[in-house]
Write a structure and sequence with these properties.
Elements lengths: L5 E7 L12 E6 L5 H9 L17 E6 L3 E5 L10 H17 L3 E9 L6 H12 L4 E6 L6 H15 L9 E3 L8 H19 L1
Parallel strand pairs: 2-4, 2-5, 5-6, 6-7
Antiparallel strand pairs: 1-3, 3-4
Bound molecules: guanosine-5'-triphosphate and magnesium ion.
The site of magnesium ion has 5 residues, from helix 1.
Length: 203
């Protein structure tokens, strides 16, 4: 898929105020600093469409972007940011839960995972929660430029093995690097395919 246009639509902390349109929506979620905003910029070939930062906790709101006037891409705040207070963690959990619980337009979530780390309980728990709530998701491994190919393979295998302890199948996954432009066509091609399926179903 070629990205012809990518526009910021709105930022929100209130799920009820998110765009009302029925355009298919794809949400990017994962731990703070995993590279969600960077990935969105890489996918759209726009340097600073989504705001990035070396400091965790940059994205605090639900950010909608309109792509090709045809679908929404959503940048969500990261979970698992240790330095936020317990009460703001609760608020945050609430709005993430509300987002996933109420956005019927959501086609799939992309859960981003830093490829350098061993499988983290917080990510596995989040995937479990999505599964229990019937929300489809794929995994996007980020920062692949930081590892050699062999290590990438090993880390992905470790992940698969741990997922197979609770899941019947390994979810779809993608290996990406925003700094080296890796994985872009795979992710965009996947979204394109899902959008086409939605059109077929609608007609
Ligand atoms: P929050 O909004 O705080 O939850 O973070 P985020 O997940 O949106 O991460 P963001 O895109 O802001 O990136 C965090 C840091 O990781 C930045 O310093 C990025 O430059 C760096 N980063 C993101 N993607 C990559 C990548 O593919 N490779 C490398 N080497 N660094 C990356
Ligand atoms: Mg961000």
């Amino acid at each position: 898929m070629k990205i012809k246009s990518a526009e910021f639509v709105m930022s929100n902390s209130d799920v009820a105020k998110c765009p009302k349109s029925r355009l298919p929506e794809y949400a990017f979620i994962g731990r703070s600093n995993v590279g969600k905003s960077s990935l969105i910029n890489m996918l759209t070939s726009r340097k600073s469409l989504a705001k990035t930062s070396g400091r965790p906790g940059k994205t605090q709101l639900i950010n909608h972007f309109l792509i090709n006037n045809n679908w929404h891409l959503v940048d969500l705040p990261g979970y698992g940011y240790a330095r936020v207070s317990k009460s703001s963690k609760k608020v945050f959990q609430k709005f993430i839960t509300q987002y996933f619980g109420s956005r019927e337009q959501l086609v799939t979530a992309f859960v981003l995972v830093d490829i350098r780390h061993t499988p983290q309980p917080i990510d596995l728990e989040f995937m479990q929660w999505l599964g229990e709530n019937g929300i489809p998701f794929s995994i996007i491994f980020t920062k692949a430029d930081k590892l050699r190919p062999q290590a990438i393979e090993k880390h992905v295998d470790d992940y698969k093995n741990i997922l197979l302890e609770t899941w019947v199948e390994v979810p779809n996954y993608f290996i990406t690097s925003s700094s080296k432009d890796i994985g872009k066509d795979d992710v965009l091609g996947y979204i394109d395919g899902l959008n086409e399926n939605m059109n077929l179903e609608a007609n």
